[in-house]
Specification:
With about 200 residues, this protein is an all-beta fold. It is about 0% helix and about 40% strand.
Amino acid sequence: YNSGDADLMIDSFSISDNDNPEIPSNYWQIKGFFAFPVKVKPGRVKAFTVKMASGLEPANPEGTLQIEYIANKGLQQYTISLKGIITANPPTLPQANAGSTEDYPGLVAGEPFSLKGSATGNVSNADGYIWYLISKPANSALILNGVPGPANLEITPDTAGVYNLALMVKSNDPEPMYSANASVIIAVEPPPDPEPTPEENP
């Protein structure tokens, strides 16, 4: 998620296994094709999926995902720890619900409203909901930073147009896991024209 005010350029992904970090991973791979550099505009998110191979040893591998990106401070690195779990009793992930377009009638630019998120299953707590923007009007400055918070987060759309928002929910596990994304498209109307001021009689 790009919470800055300038384009962020993802320069590369790399994954290594912790027991043999000098060579590319045997267990992990990023699904999909990416033509680098990948541009992420301010207030936008770039989602990708990491897949783990099963049937290899060790059964529960650990790895490191490294993302190189170019931002205001030049080339930087972001590292994520990966931990695979293979078990006969897999954890039950929570299910996120972002509501439907019909749940958000009459929205007007400049007026706050509450998102209507909910979840079922193994949800961490009242602040385990993660809202973020998938897309927004080109001239909107609205930012949702993807930090865990309440299901009914209050936001103020600043520009009329169509917003695509997504919700992810954190599980109540010692090592939290996350639900699949649920998304909702909302339409925001421009504010009404101000009423003309009555002219005063001389």
